[in-house]
C-alpha cells in the first residue's frame, strides 16, 4: 500500500449537478482516490460555461468524502479574447499546418519549446470563462502543502496556469481532441513543465505526442471506469418524460460541438423509414439551440437514476461528437449492453471499434447513419454480437481495479521526481 498523500484535483467545474463528461471523469477519480488519500478539488464557482457567471458560492464544502474549494472566476471578456486570439492565430495556424504535414513533432524536437506569440495566447486565456486569479494565487501559495496535483482539461485556462505554477508536481489529464485549441503555443509551454501526462486512449496519446513531441516528459494510459447508479423505476421514468417503448438515445451537452449534424441526419432517417423509424430521445442541458426534427424528444437535464433507466431501455445510443478523448457515455452503453452508433470522424471512436472488434458501429455520412441505425434496431443477430463484444471489452479494459492501479503508479512517478 502506497503512503497516504495529500492530493488536489484542479477542474474548471465540479459538482453533482454538472452535465459534462470531463467533470464526471474528474469526480469519479477524486471520490475513489479519496478512499486511499486526502483528496481535495480546486475549482471555480462557475456552473454554466456559456454564461460564465459565479453561480456557486466561493468557499469550502464536503462532497462524497472530498473537500471542494471553490474560487470566483473573472467575468469573461469575449471581445478581448477574440482580439488576443486573432493576434495569436499565426502561431496556432503554423503549428496546425506542420501537424497536418506530419512535421510538427520533428520541428519541435529541433527548435525546442515554442514561444512565438506566447504572450498573445496567454492574454487570450485570461479573458476566457473559468479564469480565476484567486484559484491560481491559492495554488502558488499552497503548492508545498500538497504532494501532487491532478489537473484536467487542456482546452481551458486553468490547465496552462496550473502547469506554470505547479507543473513539477502535476499529473495532467488533458482530454485532448484534434481541434484548434490543442495547437496553442501556451500548451507547448504547459506540457514542458508537467511531470506526467495521463491519457485516456492510445489514440489520444499518439495525438499528444504528434503535437507536443519531446515537450511531454513522461506519459502513459490511465483512463477511467464508469460510475453505475441504480436505475429509477422504468414506468415512473417513462411517464415522467412521456417516453415511447422503443427509441434511440443521445446523452450529453446540447451544443454543436457535441451534437454535430445529428438532427439533420436523424431527419433524413425518419423520412426514409417513416413510422418504422426509432424516435430519438435527446437528454441533456441545452447550451446552443438546434433545429429539432420531427420525432426528437428533449428531456433536459435528468438525474443519474433517470439517466440509467433511460439508457437501459434504449435500443441504440448515438454519439455524434467528433471531439472525444474517451466518451464515458459510450462506456456506460457497452457495460449496459446497449449497441452504440458513433461518429467515425472521431479517431478515438474508430480505435474503440477496432480494439473491441466491432462492439460499436461508426458512421461517416448521412447514408451511413441511416442504414446502420436501421440495421442496429432491426437485426437481432447484429445486436447480440455488439452486446457481447462490448461487455467483454469493458471487463478487459475499464474495470476500476486496473484504472486505480495505473493512477497510483503515475502518482508514484510524480512523487519520485519531486523527492529528487
Describe the structure.
With 420 residues, this protein is of the alpha/beta class. It has helices at residues 21-33, 78-100, 104-111, 118-126, 133-142, 157-166, 185-193, 202-212, 234-241, 256-259, 262-273, 304-312, 328-335, 347-355, 366-378, 380-397, 400-419, and strands at 6-10, 38-44, 59-63, 66-71, 148-152, 170-173, 196-199, 219-221, 248-251, 280-283, 296-300, 316-319, 340-343, 360-363. The longest helix has 23 residues, at 78-100. The radius of gyration is 22 Å and the shape is globular. The relative contact order is 0.11. The model has no long low-confidence stretch (mean pLDDT 94).
Strand and helix map with partners:
Layout: E1 6-10, H1 21-33, E2 38-44, E3 59-63, E4 66-71, H2 78-100, H3 104-111, H4 118-126, H5 133-142, E5 148-152, H6 157-166, E6 170-173, H7 185-193, E7 196-199, H8 202-212, E8 219-221, H9 234-241, E9 248-251, H10 256-259, H11 262-273, E10 280-283, E11 296-300, H12 304-312, E12 316-319, H13 328-335, E13 340-343, H14 347-355, E14 360-363, H15 366-378, H16 380-397, H17 400-419
Parallel strand pairs: 1-2, 1-5, 2-4, 5-6, 6-7, 7-8, 9-10, 9-12, 10-11, 12-13, 13-14
Antiparallel strand pairs: 3-4
Helix pairs in contact: 2-4, 6-7, 11-15, 13-16
